[in-house]
Specification:
The protein has 716 residues and is of the alpha+beta class. It has helices at residues 2-6, 9-74, 77-93, 100-121, 128-131, 136-147, 167-186, 224-235, 280-288, 318-322, 324-333, 338-347, 359-365, 404-407, 409-455, 470-506, 509-516, 539-543, 548-568, 594-616, 648-658, 669-675, and strands at 190-195, 201-204, 241-249, 255-266, 269-278, 303-308, 370-375, 381-391, 394-403, 523-537, 572-577, 580-585, 621-636, 642-646, 664-667, 679-689, 693-702. The chain is flat and about 120 Å long.
C-alpha cells in the first residue's frame, strides 16, 4: 500500500484503469456467458415444450378422430349388411374345397413368397405349414384372392372380383371399392370385418394372409389383432372402442401394426367387430411434421419421437430419415447388436426394434412431464422436453429434443468473440492509458456503472461513448450484449403472453383465472344451461379438391365466424372437433335468457353458412341440436387442460344433433316450454336417448318470416 501511495496520480489512475478494465472485461464476459446461456436455454426449452405440446395434441387428436370414425362406421348400414352377407357366403365356402392343384398353388405361395419375406424380419425359422389356413373357406378365399390374384405382392387389394362365380365374390365386388376408398382417404393400412361368434376374418381390404383365418384358433390367435377381437367380444357394448398398441404383426411380414376396434350390432344382435389396422407412416408424418423439422423451429438437430412402455420406438428418429448411413454408424458406435441393426435394415424401419432408455423416456413413462439435459440414444448431449401420452390401456413417452451444441452455439460464439476481443483490447488499452488516463477514467466509470445496472437486471441499459478506440469497442460489445439479453427477455415475456392466450383459448376466462390462482380439481354444477351441438355437413366433399392449407383456411374462416357470432350473443364455445361445434350459454356467465340466446345464435349460424355458401359457391349444410338442463363442468387433465361438460343435458343435445335435419334448428321440450310464444315451433320427430327412451323434438322458426336471421340483433 505504501508503494501505491508513492505513485503519481497518473500512475494510480493508470493502474486502477488497467485493473478496472480487466475486472470489467472478466465480469462482462462471465455475465454475458451466463446470461446468454440461460436465455438461450430458456428459449430452447420454450420451443421444445411447444413442440412437445403440439405433437401430443396432434397424436391424441389423431387417435380420437380414428376412434370416432370407427364408431361411426360401425353404425353404417353398409358395414352391418357386409358382415351379415360375408358371414353367410363364407359358411357356404366351407363346403367348397379346393382342388389338389389349387391347394398346392396356395402352399407354394406361402413357401416361396410369404415365408422368405417373413423370415428376413422375424427371429426363428417360420415354416409355411404353421401359417397355412386351416379351414376350407379360408383356403378357398386365400387361393382366389391371394395366390391366384394376378396383381403383384402388396397390390392384392386391387382385385374386386375373383371371377369364381361364388356368392362371396359377388358381395366382394359390391363392397370392396367402398372400403378401399376409406382406407385410401383416411390413411389406414387395412379394414377388417370379423364374425363375433366364430372369430373368423370375413373380409380385409389389403388381402394379406390373415384373410379368412380364425382369430380364436388360427395361426394369428396370439397376435394383437386377435387381442383386439377378444376385447371386442368381451365388451358387448355398442359404444365400445379400444386402441391396441403397435406390435410386430406377421401377416405384414413382422412390421409394426396397431389396431382400433369396435362392436357392430344389427339392432340388438351383436354380429361382429369392425377393426382398423393403423399405419405407422401416419404417426411418422405427425411426429416429423412431414420431415420439415426446421420449419417448425427444431433447427438442424431437433426432433420429436415416441417410445412405448417396452422402451421401443413408435416413430422414426430424424437421423434415420435424414441420413440412414450415419444412423447405422451411430448404432454401431454405441454397441447396438449387429442382429438388431440387420433387423432394422430388413424392416426398413427402427420401429419396435430400436430401444431408447434415456432419462427423458424413463421419466415420461413414469408419468413425469418436464425438461432435462441428458445424453440421447446417440450418446450425444441434448436438451429435451418429455411427457407421457395416455392412449387407453397403454402409455407412450413423447420426447422433443435438440443437441446442446446447437442450443448453446450462440453463447459459445459470443464467448469466443469476447476472448478474442479481450486479447486485443488489453495491450492496446494499456498503451493508450499512459497518455489518456484522465480521459479514460470517465468512460470506464460509465462502463462499470452500466455493468452494475445490467447485473441488477436493468436490461435496457446502453452506454454512450463516442470514442473509436478499444474502450469504444468494449462499449459497443457491451451494448450488443445488453441488446441481446433484452431481446431474449422479450422473447420469454412473449412466450409467457402466448401461454396466457393459449390458456384462455382452452378454458373460459373465469375458469382460467381460478386455475391460475392455484385452485385444484375445478368442478361445478350448473342447474340450468343451454347446450348446442352443430355439425357442418358437406365440408369433406368441398375440401377434397383443395390443398390441406386451403381446406384449413376455409374451415378456419367459417369456424372463426361462428366464434365471433358466439361472442355477439353471449354464447361460450367449448370446443370444435373436426366439423363439429359445441357451445353453451349460461355456464360461466349466468344468463336468464340462455335458451333464447342460443336459439338466436343458431339462427345466426344458419345465416353464416348461407353467406359462406354464396361466397364460396359451396353447398354446406348445418345440423343443429339444442337442449336446456343441468350440467356438471370441470377441468380434465393435469398436463393438458380440457374444460369438459357431463350430464344428461349433453346426452340429449347430442342425441338430437345425431339424428340430423339439415339447416333446421332442432330443440327439445325444455327449450320449447321456455320459448313457446316467442318463436314458431313445429313438432318434428321423436329421438331415442339412451337411459331416457324417446323424447320429442321440435323445429323452431322466427315468428316474423320476413326477418333475415341474425340481422339487426342487439345483445345486452
Amino acid at each position: 500500500m505504501s508503494f501505491f501511495n508513492q505513485l503519481s496520480l497518473q500512475s494510480k489512475i493508470l493502474t486502477m484503469l488497467v485493473v478496472a478494465t480487466l475486472l470489467s472485461i472478466l465480469l462482462t464476459g462471465a455475465l454475458s456467458y451466463y446470461t446468454g446461456q440461460t436465455a438461450l436455454k430458456e428459449t430452447a426449452i420454450n420451443q421444445l415444450v411447444s413442440a412437445r405440446t403440439g405433437k401430443a395434441e396432434e397424436i391424441e387428436s389423431y387417435f380420437k378422430f380414428t376412434e370416432n370414425h370407427v364408431l361411426t362406421m360401425s353404425e353404417a348400414t353398409m358395414v352391418i349388411d357386409a358382415i351379415k352377407g360375408f358371414k353367410n357366403a363364407y359358411q357356404k365356402l366351407d363346403s367348397t374345397p379346393l382342388k389338389p392343384e389349387q391347394k398346392q398353388t396356395l402352399l407354394e405361395y406361402y413357401r416361396k413368397k410369404f415365408i422368405p419375406r417373413l423370415a428376413r424380419n422375424v427371429s426363428g425359422n417360420p415354416i409355411a405349414e404353421a401359417y397355412y389356413p386351416n379351414t376350407p373357406a379360408a383356403e378357398y378365399l386365400q387361393y382366389h384372392y391371394i395366390a391366384a390374384n394376378p396383381n403383384e405382392l402388396g397390390e392384392k387389394y386391387k382385385l374386386e372380383n375373383a371371377k369364381d362365380g361364388s356368392e362371396y365374390s359377388t358381395l366382394h365386388q359390391k363392397y370392396h371399392s367402398r372400403f378401399r376408398n376409406i382406407v385410401d382417404k383416411m390413411g389406414y393400412y387395412d379394414i377388417f370385418l370379423v364374425d363375433i361368434d366364430t372369430g373368423t376374418v370375413l373380409y380385409t381390404t389389403q388381402k394379406e394372409v390373415d384373410f379368412g383365418t380364425n382369430l380364436k384358433l388360427g395361426p394369428y390367435a396370439g397376435s394383437n389383432l386377435a387381442q383386439a377381437y377378444q376385447q371386442t367380444l368381451q365388451s358387448r357394448d355398442p359404444y365400445f372402442v379400444k386402441t391396441i398398441d403397435f406390435a410386430s404383426y406377421r401377416p405384414t411380414y413382422g412390421k409394426p401394426s396397431g389396431f382400433i376396434t369396435t362392436t357392430v350390432f344389427d339392432g340388438d344382435n351383436f354380429i361382429g367387430a369392425l377393426i382398423f389396422q393403423l399405419s405407422p407412416e401416419r404417426i411418422n408424418q405427425v411426429m416429423t411434421s412431414n420431415q420439415k423439422w426446421e420449419d417448425v423451429g427444431l433447427g438442424e438437430t431437433g426432433e420429436t419421437y415416441l417410445v412405448g412402455q417396452d422402451f421401443l420406438l413408435r416413430s422414426a428418429p430424424r437421423l434415420f430419415l435424414e441420413n440412414t448411413e450415419k444412423y447405422y454408424e451411430a448404432l454401431t458406435k454405441n454397441n447396438i447388436p449387429l442382429e438388431e441393426i440387420r433387423q432394422i435394415q430388413n424392416l426398413e424401419s427402427p420401429l419396435l426394434v430400436q430401444k431408447i432408455e434415456t432419462e427423458a423416456v424413463k421419466r415420461a413413462l413414469n408419468g413425469e412431464t418436464g425438461t432435462a439435459l441428458y445424453s440421447d440414444y446417440r450418446q450425444t448431449p441434448v436438451l429435451g422436453a418429455f411427457a407421457p401420452i395416455e392412449l387407453g390401456d397403454f402409455k407412450w413417452a413423447l420426447v422433443a429434443k435438440q443437441d446442446q451444441k446447437e442450443v448453446f452455439k450462440g453463447v459459445q460464439d459470443l464467448f469466443n468473440r469476447l476472448i478474442a476481443s479481450t486479447a486485443i483490447l488489453i495491450p492496446l488499452f494499456t498503451l493508450g492509458a499512459i497518455f489518456f488516463a484522465r480521459l479514460l477514467a470517465r468512460p470506464i466509470n460509465k462502463l462499470i456503472a452500466a455493468t452494475k445496472k445490467l447485473t441488477a437486471g436493468e436490461t435496457d441499459v446502453q452506454v454512450k461513448i463516442n470514442s473509436k478506440d478499444e474502450i469504444g469497442e468494449l462499449a459497443e460489445s457491451f451494448n450488443k450484449m445488453a441488446e441481446m439479453i433484452r431481446s431474449k427477455e422479450e422473447i420469454v415475456t412473449q412466450k409467457i403472453a402466448e401461454n396466457e392466450r393459449l390458456l384462455l383459448n382452452v378454458l373460459p376466462a373465469p375458469i382460467a383465472k381460478r386455475l391460475q390462482s392455484g385452485e385444484q380439481d375445478i368442478a361445478d354444477s350448473f342447474p340450468n344451461v343451454t347446450v348446442l351441438f352443430a355439425e357442418i355437413e358437406g365440408f369433406s366433399e368441398l375440401s377434397k379438391d383443395l390443398s390441406p392449407d386451403q381446406a384449413v383456411t376455409l374451415l378456419n374462416e367459417l369456424v372463426g365466424n361462428f366464434d365471433e357470432t358466439a361472442e355477439l350473443y353471449g354464447v361460450e364455445k367449448l370446443k370444435t372437433i373436426g366439423e363439429s361445434y359445441l357451445a353453451v350459454c349460461g355456464l360461466t356467465v349466468p344468463r336468464v335468457d340462455h335458451a333464447k340466446r342460443m336459439v338466436d345464435f343458431a339462427q345466426a349460424l344458419l345465416k353464416t353458412v348461407r353467406r359462406f355458401n354464396q361466397k364460396q359457391g359451396s353447398n354446406l349444410n348445418l345440423d343443429i341440436g339444442i337442449h336446456s338442463g343441468p350440467v356438471v363442468a370441470g377441468i380434465v387433465g393435469k398436463t393438458k387442460f380440457i374444460y369438459e361438460l357431463w350430464g344428461e343435458t349433453m346426452t340429449v343435445a347430442k342425441a338430437i344433433h345425431s339424428t340430423p335435419e339439415q339447416n333446421v334448428i332442432q330443440v327439445s321440450k325444455s327449450v320449447y316450454d321456455v320459448l313457446q310464444g316467442l318463436y314458431y315451433f313445429e313438432p318434428l320427430k321423436e329421438v331415442e336417448v339412451k337411459g331416457k327412451g324417446k323424447i320429442s323434438v321440435w323445429s323452431v322458426h322466427s315468428l316474423d318470416s320476413s326477418l333475415v336471421l341474425g340481422e339487426n340483433v342487439e345483445v345486452q
